[in-house]
């Protein structure tokens, strides 16, 4: 999407502007850096030892379940 240059709040604002329902991130500090209650987007944090596909693949069933029910302005961490 060409968003590699965006940082923190800019990334969230762009996702909201593009009408994303949720944003998946590996940034475990995002909950301390941003106020999600003011943005109509849900955040799912993937808590893993690394960002490799083989590490995240087993988490996808849980991610899908969370995405079915998470509300805008909420943050869920998946370990």
For this entry, what is the oligomeric state of its chains?
single chain
Please give the order of strands in the largest beta sheet: 1-2-3
**N-to-C CA distance:** 27 Å
Number of helices: 4
Helix content: 25-40%
How many strand segments? 3
Which percent range describes the beta-strand content? 15-25%
How many domains? The number is 1
Give the overall average pLDDT: 93
H and E string = HEHEHHE
What spatial form do the alpha-carbon principal axes imply? globular
Structural class: alpha/beta
Q: What are the low-pLDDT stretches, counting only 5+ consecutive residues below 50?
A: none
Main sheet attributes: strand count, strand direction, barrel closure = 3 strands, parallel
Q: What is the rounded Rg?
A: 12 Å
Could you please describe the fold and organization of this structure?
The protein has one domain (8-78). With 79 residues, the chain is α/β, with parallel strands linked by helices. It starts with 7 loop residues before the first helix and ends with a strand. Helix content is 35%, strand content 16%.
Brief account:
The protein has 79 residues and is α/β, with parallel strands linked by helices.
Task: Please outline the helices and strands.
Layout: H1 8-17, E1 22-25, H2 30-33, E2 42-46, H3 53-56, H4 60-69, E3 75-78
Parallel strand pairs: 1-2, 2-3
């Amino acid at each position: 999407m060409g968003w590699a240059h965006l940082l923190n709040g800019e990334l969230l604002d762009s996702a909201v502007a593009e009408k994303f329902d949720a944003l998946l991130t590996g940034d475990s500090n995002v909950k301390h850096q941003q106020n999600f209650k003011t943005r109509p987007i849900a955040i799912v944090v993937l808590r893993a030892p690394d960002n490799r596909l083989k590490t995240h693949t087993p988490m996808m069933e849980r991610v899908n379940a969370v995405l079915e029910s998470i509300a805008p302005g909420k943050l869920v961490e998946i370990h």
